[in-house]
Design goal:
By secondary structure, the chain is mostly helical. The protein has one domain. It is built from three helices and no strands. α1 runs antiparallel to α2 and α1 packs parallel to α3. The radius of gyration is 23 Å and the shape is elongated.
Length: about 140
């Protein structure tokens, strides 16, 4: 099961690295350049500079919030799938189930969870594509 968790984590990390390289990093660079320009006018008040810097950071903050929400939704879906596996097995186990039956059910549970992992890893390319589209439009 730890291997399955590692596979999901690796796949998600790969997706996040792609998003960072192709979208988020440029947005952050633009934010820093914009913020630096806010500080160039010596006649600007402290409040004006802060307001300008806050405006510069809005696109990055929105993008990061969007990515965070998408990852939470993805994680929730994976957890619900695993919980469904657990519920199905729990319904099969009886108080008087023999150890051999319990072992069999444990194997069924692991197989079910591995199917969840595989199906959710398969969802990542379409999730990445959708997130790229949203981030591209947000510029």
């Amino acid at each position: 099961m730890e291997g399955a968790q590692a596979r999901v984590q690796d796949a998600v990390n790969s997706m996040l690295n792609t998003l960072d390289r192709e979208h988020l990093r440029k947005m952050q660079a633009d934010m820093y350049k914009c913020s630096a320009k806010c500080c160039e006018n010596p006649k600007s008040s402290l409040e004006d500079v802060q307001r300008c810097v806050d405006q510069c950071s809005q696109p990055v903050n929105k993008a990061q919030s969007f990515v965070h929400n998408e990852l939470q939704n993805y994680q929730g879906r994976l957890q619900r799938c695993a919980m469904d596996c657990q519920d199905k097995i729990r319904d099969k186990v009886k108080p008087d189930s023999a150890d051999s039956e319990v072992s069999k059910y444990k194997g069924e549970m692991e197989t079910c969870v591995l199917k969840c992992v595989d199906s959710h890893i398969d969802l990542l390319p379409s999730l990445l594509k959708r997130m790229k589209e949203v981030l591209s439009k947000g510029k």
